[in-house]
Design goal:
Length: about 425
C-alpha cells in the first residue's frame, strides 16, 4: 500500500512542472496609467461647470433635488462592449492620495501606497481604471464603455481633444461631468475623442448609461478612466472607505482593495506584441495579440495569461489538456518565483511556449488556469479545421461559465458587466 501511494505521488510530481518559467513578462507600474492636472486647468474646469450650472434652465435645476447621495449607491463605472472577449478588462493603477504632503507622501484609502503625487503639489485626486492587457487596441476598438455611476444631470462636456497621450502635459482632456441629486459632481476623464454621448448639457442620465469610451486624452500616460468625485464645496471625495478614509463607502457593492483576477487566458501563434505608446513615428499604433486557436501537430503554441492585482504567494495551477481530458502539460506559477522588485502588481502578463508533439491527438484541447478559487478555460484545436467552430463554441461556453459564476457571486453590482459580455 505504501508502495502504491509512493507511485501515485511520484506520478503527480512528474506531470506537474513546478517552475516552468515564463518567457517574457509585462508589468504595470503606477505611472503606466496615470495623469495630472495643473491648478490652472482645474480652476478652468470648475469655472466652466459653475457657468454651465448657472445657465441650466430652471426646470432642470428643479429636478436636481437637494438630497444626500445615498451611501452605497454608486454603480461600477465601466461596462464591456459587445466586442469584448476575455474574462475581465480592467485593473486599478491608482487610488486617491489622502496625504496632503508632497512629493513622495502617498497614502491611499486603505493606508497603502497605490497612488502618487508630484513636486508641483498634485495629489492624485481620483481612481484610475486602466484597460488590460491590450490598452490601445481595446481603446481603438471601443471595447470598454464608461457609464454613469449614479443618475444625474450632465453639467459639462469636452470632446475633440487628442486622445493618444503617452505622457504628462497640459493638454485638455475629453470628459463628461455629471451632477447628482445631492449636488456632488462626478468627473469622468481621458475619454476617447468623438466617443462621448450625444446628450447635451442639462440632459439627465441614468445610472449605467453610456457616457463615452475609455481613451488617453489630456495629461495621461495610457488609456484609462480617471473617476473623480467632488463635494458641493469642491472638496475631493474618495468613494472608497478604508482605514485611511473615514467617510462612508459610496459603492453599491464594496470593492476589495486587491481583486486577484485573470483578465485573459489565450493561445497564440507568436508572442503577443505590446507597444510603448499608442503613437509611433507620428502614426497611431496598437498592440497585436496574434491570437491563434487552431494549430497543427508539431506547431509551437504560445500561452498567454494576463492578471490584475497579482501578489507573491498566489499560485496559479496551469494545465493543457488533450481532447480526452488527459493532462499534457501542467505547471504552477507564482509571481514570487520571478524575483521582481515588488511583491504586488496591479497588472501583469506572462507567456510560455510549448511545441505540440508530432503525433498530438487531433481535436479540441483546453488551456486551463486555476487561480484564487476560480477556474479559467480557453479551448483550441489541433488538426482538423472542421472542429474549429466547435472550439469557438466551447471556448465561449467556458468563458461564459466563468462570467456567470462571477456574476452570481454578487461582486458585480452592474448587470451590464454580466449581461453585455454574455452576448459577444
Ligand atoms: Zn487619475
Amino acid at each position: 500500500m505504501r508502495r502504491l501511494l509512493f507511485f501515485l505521488f511520484s506520478g503527480v510530481l512528474s506531470s506537474v512542472a513546478l517552475a516552468d518559467a515564463p518567457t517574457h513578462h509585462w508589468l504595470v507600474q503606477s505611472d503606466d496609467f496615470a495623469d495630472e492636472m495643473s491648478p490652472i486647468r482645474r480652476a478652468d474646469i470648475e469655472r466652466m461647470l459653475l457657468r454651465n450650472r448657472l445657465l441650466l434652465p430652471r426646470h432642470v435645476e428643479a429636478m436636481v433635488l437637494p438630497a444626500q447621495i445615498a451611501p452605497a449607491s454608486l454603480q461600477w463605472p465601466l461596462a464591456a462592449n459587445a466586442n469584448f472577449i476575455g474574462f475581465d478588462y480592467h485593473g486599478i493603477s491608482n487610488f486617491v492620495d489622502h496625504d496632503a504632503r508632497f512629493p513622495g507622501f502617498v497614502t491611499d484609502y486603505s493606508c497603502g501606497t497605490r497612488s502618487y503625487d508630484n513636486a508641483a503639489g498634485y495629489n492624485h485626486a481620483g481612481t484610475d481604471y486602466f484597460l488590460w492587457p491590450y490598452p490601445w487596441l481595446m481603446m481603438d476598438q471601443q471595447q470598454v464603455a464608461i457609464v454613469a455611476a449614479a443618475p444625474g444631470v450632465i453639467v459639462g462636456k469636452s470632446d475633440g481633444n487628442f486622445d493618444r497621450s503617452c505622457a504628462m502635459g497640459n493638454a485638455e482632456w475629453n470628459a463628461v461631468y455629471v451632477q447628482h441629486a445631492d449636488n456632488t459632481v462626478a468627473w469622468y476623464g481621458h475619454m476617447k475623442s468623438g466617443s462621448l454621448t450625444n446628450k447635451l448639457i442639462g440632459a439627465n442620465v441614468a445610472a449605467g448609461e453610456l457616457l463615452g469610451f475609455v481613451g488617453s486624452s489630456g495629461s495621461s500616460t495610457a488609456p484609462h478612466l480617471h473617476f473623480e468625485l467632488h463635494a458641493v464645496n469642491g472638496d475631493i471625495i474618495d468613494p472608497r472607505h478604508g482605514q485611511c478614509n473615514a467617510s462612508a463607502d459610496l459603492w453599491a457593492v464594496m470593492q476589495p482593495y486587491e481583486e486577484p483576477t485573470i483578465n485573459a487566458l489565450s493561445t497564440h501563434s507568436v508572442e503577443p506584441e505590446f507597444v510603448a505608446c499608442g503613437v509611433a513615428n507620428g502614426q497611431p499604433e496598437e498592440e497585436n495579440p496574434a491570437y491563434q486557436d487552431a494549430f497543427e501537430p508539431g506547431a509551437t503554441l504560445w500561452v498567454f495569461a494576463a492578471y490584475h492585482d497579482q501578489r507573491n504567494g498566489e499560485i496559479t495551477h496551469f494545465s493543457i489538456q488533450r481532447p480526452d481530458h488527459s493532462i499534457w502539460q501542467a505547471w504552477d506559477f507564482d509571481l514570487a518565483s520571478e524575483g521582481l522588485p515588488k511583491p504586488f502588481y496591479s497588472g501583469t502578463g506572462w507567456d510560455w511556449s510549448y511545441v505540440l508533439p508530432a503525433d498530438a491527438p487531433l481535436g479540441m484541447w483546453t488551456l486551463n488556469a486555476e487561480f484564487q478559487g476560480q477556474t479559467y478555460t480557453h479551448a483550441f484545436t489541433v488538426g482538423s479545421s472542421k472542429s474549429r467552430d466547435l472550439a469557438a463554441v466551447a471556448a465561449e461556453r467556458a468563458r461564459i461559465a466563468v462570467l456567470l459564476a462571477r456574476c452570481r457571486g454578487g461582486n458585480l453590482p452592474l448587470s451590464a458587466d454580466c449581461i453585455s459580455t454574455r452576448h459577444p
